[in-house]
Amino acid sequence: MTRKIRKSWEKFARQATQWTGRPAAFAIAVAIIVAWLATGPIFHYSDTWQLVINTGTTVVTFLMVFLIQHAQNKDTRAIELKLNELVAAMPGASNRMIDVEALSEQELDTLHRFYRRLVAMAKKDTELTTSHSVEEAAMRHARKKKREQQIESAAAPPPPPPAP
Predict the structure, then answer these.
(1) Integer-rounded Cα radius of gyration of the chain
(2) Which residues fall within 8 angstroms of residue 64, CB to CB, at 6 or more apart?
(3) What are the residue ranges spanned by the domains of the chain?
(4) Crossing angle for the helix pair 3-20 and 47-89, nearest 10 degrees?
(5) 24-50: buried (b, 16+ CB within 10 Å) or exposed (e) per residue?
(6) H or E segment to which residue 44 belongs
(7) What is the pTM assigned to this prediction?
(8) pLDDT means over runs of 10, the chain (164 residues)
């Protein structure tokens, strides 16, 4: 697509999706339906009368699918880029999370399982502000448990002397 056509498409798609998402657009759609219903008795609720609304709504729906998909794709990409920037800027964040949307479903499922483990570990933490990558969380959790065991064993009374 040439640059000029693409720019024109972008402008049209943005304006159309913004306009159709407004209450006025909904009011116009309701008015069209009410006008169509009102003309039913005039046209004796004929097949042609029904075909008018069916054809009109089908065409509008078909075209809106492409406009909405375009807007959703653009919004999704913008959100992904913003999240990538945050991940890249955060010290300690896993850079493997940048461009994660390019992973396969199976890879995303594997990653999801890792984060479920992270959630399970986080639920055991008493501080709400504790946050880490999966790897850091596993290491910190292991160290924390080791320290807790050491403290418990240090606080425990010494074992009795062996019997003679």
Answers:
(1) 30
(2) 20
(3) 1-102, 103-154
(4) 110
(5) eeeeeeeeeeeebeeeeeeeeeeeebe
(6) none
(7) 0.60
(8) 88 92 95 96 94 96 94 92 85 78 90 84 69 66 79 75 71
